[in-house]
Amino acid sequence: MLKQVATGIKPAADQSIVASRRQAGTKQRGEQAEALACAFLQQQGLRLLARNYRSPGRGGGEIDLVMQERDGTMVFVEVRLRQRADFGGAAASIDQRKQAKVVLAAQHYLLSLGGAWPPCRFDVVVLQGLPVPPMAATSSAAISDGLQWFKAAFDAS
């Protein structure tokens, strides 16, 4: 059996464990960011209808939050968390391809409701440089300081 020489290269099994832990941490931070965004939007008077709605099929999109304004406007929200502003930051990461996937998922969501479609809007909530702490330790002031809400950030065309 060969011994691994101290070269700084980890065996493949160790690398996959590290990668899966990193993904789990990223997923957890994403879920916390969505929870913070949802709480903020609810403070602004929006009502939560669905979280993490996925349109079926390959290449379908996902909507982080489906909310509704008091006037009945359906609001499809994309939440982005970035620790740093490299490469344009969180807002710049929502390119046209991502927008198209969100629009596709929104259309599927609306079709699943049946009937006439309500007025709709696509919003983006950006959490930039905000360390996402456990929910219990977060004040609403801290949330709004690191959070930006872009109403009608993009449209369905």
From TrEMBL:
Q: Which domain of life is it from?
A: Bacteria
**InterPro entries from the xrefs?**
Restrct_endonuc-II-like (IPR011335), tRNA_endonuc-like_dom_sf (IPR011856), UPF0102_YraN-like (IPR003509)
- Pfam families from the UniProt entry: UPF0102 (PF02021)
Q: Name one GO molecular function term.
A: nucleic acid binding
> Which HAMAP family does the UniProt entry name for this protein?
UPF0102
Q: Which family does it belong to?
A: Belongs to the UPF0102 family.
Would you tell me the protein name for this molecule? UPF0102 protein E8K88_12850
- Classification lineage: Bacteria, Pseudomonadati, Pseudomonadota, Betaproteobacteria, Burkholderiales
